[in-house]
Hints:
By secondary structure, the protein is of the alpha/beta class. The chain has helices spanning about 5-25, 60-75, 100-105, 125-130, 145-150, 150-160, 190-200, 210-215, 265-275, 285-295, 350-355, and strands at about 40, 50-55, 85-90, 110-115, 135-140, 165-170, 205-210, 235-240, 255-260, 280-285, 300-305, 330-340, 340-350. It has eleven helices and 13 strands. The protein starts with a helix and ends with a helix.
Amino acid sequence: MPEAEREPDATQRAVERAMRRALQLALNGPRGVNPQVGAVILSPAGEVLAEGWHRGAGTPHAEIDALTNLAATHGAEAARGATAVVTLEPCNHTGRTGPCAVALLEAGVGRVVYAVHDPGALSGGGGARLRSAGVDVEAGVLGDEGRALLDSWLTVQRLGRPHVTVKWAQSLDGRAAASDGTSQWITGPAARADVHVRRAAADAIVVGTGTLLADDPALTARRPDGSLYEHQPRPVVVGTRAVPQDAAVRRHPVPFMQDEGDDLADLLDRLRELGAQRVFVEGGPTLASSFVRAGLVDELLIYLAPTLLGGDRLATGDLGVPTIAAQRRLTVTDLACLGDDLLVVAAPEALSKEED
């Protein structure tokens, strides 16, 4: 095959390698208010000239970081005609830093490749701006991988608040505790280990004061051997009752915050401002029901134990369902056997249809 016909394939392979590297670089940055973004600058021949990533709010974006590194090692002129490979569409607005689309234009970059569109009303549109200025722009390269990397951040952009998972454990007859209030443990070790894995993936873990006072949970994410996972969710206690001085939550590696719970939407807004993208609501029944009733739940994790408790300690309280016509239908998205227990993962039916 003639060299001219092989070149596009070789160039595309170089771009895909660079995008995979950019996705790795993005993980160096913190997950928070701003997205994790990585960038690689390639020469016209496909050689890596410089790399960069975003180190958090107020710091240079990945493209600027890469351009700065390029200037330091090869001189600023090396950007002319180069290809910038970025995990997220270059931003098009001025915040704490200037528009990355403009910086790439001023540097003389000839081609820009990105994995995921920026959905922001203010920050999006960088690709169109570059294209209108004559830059060759390609979107969607390794898009699935890019969306997987930015899943939590993209969800926050779509919802305007953190993603909320509500979890509870219950007996087959729908009880969350025995008549005397004891609830440890309804489920077995495999189910409890699964909960801790999911805690470690969250940015905040929310519990009501009733559960805090009854169970004294540590609210940490722990491995089966008791050691802590590297990432720990911020503990949030909802309710007006005082947290005891000897409560386990006071020994959490991340200082807890307390909220009266009279405005859950406002609480989520404040958690978002603190960088939370995923919120894990552990209960108890009153708090879980409040989130459901307010329409602030995106995912439900229901751990079903093959046991019967009877009594009036139901797993949920008032859900705002006065009549059968107002029932809150769910779509089951996953089922998993965890030892003797069953995990049901579900989403509000309206939300799952909206996503389809």
